[in-house]
Amino acid sequence: MPISEPTAAARVRRPIERIGATVLREFVQAIVSGEYAAGQILPTEAELTTEFGVSRTVIRETMKRLQEKGMITVAQGRGTHVQPITSWNVLDPLVLSTMIGNDRTLGVLDDLSVVRSALEAEMAGDVAGSVDEQARVLLRERIDDMAESVADSSVFREADVQFHLAVMDLSGNALAANIARALILHAVHSDRYLGLDPTHAFELTLAEHQAVVDAIDAGDQARAREAMREHILGSWQRRRLPTDRSSS
């Protein structure tokens, strides 16, 4: 069956969607950076249409998307108000990546590491409590992948991520795994999160992963939790760039 030519509407829709995505990113950036502060009333729809040089349809769709992300509220007759960070959907990919990108003091990444350590420690304990031979084999394979790539930073980091994802999947805790997966997959794309590579950093990281595997292999839930928690927090502190969290 011959492929029909795209309709005019279809040809127009793609650039409109790209424009809408660009405007949305600019709005999220403006809110996260504080250009539009919490409690502030946004300009009117007509003013935003002029400012961004786009149609009212694009602005309305952008406002709808920002509402879905918890970043604004729209009240008839009272305008559009910017919401505080406590209302944002911080697991939304665009919101989270923008927060990380604007994290000059590394406070967001500090908090992210604490949350990751808590979730992944519990999942490691869960795996230790129900470990079977199939799980043992999988984790040994992930450790071997890391050991074989110590000399290649990009390959090692990917193997590191795959190890953590394997523990998440084996835990059977879908909610914790989904949250932790969102955190780690967005963090690893940030140069700030990758930070420094101290001497023998990868060897230390490999040893910490091995400690997690040893605890899981032994069925020691408490030791598995502690090993995972110490690894995530310790490796972040090794990588963390020097900065003052209290600075503005």
Q: How do you describe this structure in short?
A:
With 248 residues, the chain is mostly helical. It has helices at 8-33, 45-52, 56-68, 93-101, 107-129, 133-147, 153-171, 174-187, 191-194, 201-217, 221-239, and strands spanning 72-75, 79-82.
Q: How does this model look, in words?
A:
The protein is mainly alpha-helical. It folds into two domains: 15-87, Arc Repressor Mutant, subunit A (Orthogonal Bundle); 93-239, Up-down Bundle (Four Helix Bundle (Hemerythrin (Met), subunit A)). It has helices spanning 8-33, 45-52, 56-68, 93-101, 107-129, 133-147, 153-171, 174-187, 191-194, 201-217, 221-239; strands at residues 72-75, 79-82. It has a two-stranded antiparallel sheet with strand order 1-2. β1 and β2 (79-82) form a beta hairpin. The longest helix has 26 residues, at 8-33. Residues 1-14 have low confidence and may be disordered.
Topology:
Layout: H1 8-33, H2 45-52, H3 56-68, E1 72-75, E2 79-82, H4 93-101, H5 107-129, H6 133-147, H7 153-171, H8 174-187, H9 191-194, H10 201-217, H11 221-239
Helix pairs in contact: 1-3, 1-4, 2-3, 4-8, 5-7, 5-8, 5-10, 5-11, 6-7, 6-10, 7-8, 10-11
Structural domain tally: 2
CATH class term of the largest domain: Mainly Alpha
In DSSP terms (H or I, runs of 4 or more residues), the helix count works out at: 11
- Looking at the overall shape, the CATH architecture of the largest domain is Up-down Bundle
| Spatial separation of the terminal alpha carbons | 62 Å
* Sheet with the most strands: spatial strand order: 1-2
Estimated radius of gyration: 22 Å
The fraction of residues assigned to DSSP E strands is: under 5%
Average pLDDT level: 89
Could you give the count of β-strands?
Answer: 2
**Secondary-structure element sequence?**
HHHEEHHHHHHHH
Could you say which overall geometry the principal axes of the C-alpha atoms support?
Answer: elongated
CATH topology of the largest domain: Four Helix Bundle (Hemerythrin (Met), subunit A)
CATH superfamily label of the largest domain? GntR ligand-binding domain-like
**Share of helix among residues?**
55-70%
- Category from helices, strands and their pairing: mainly alpha
Sheet with the most strands?
A: 2 strands, antiparallel
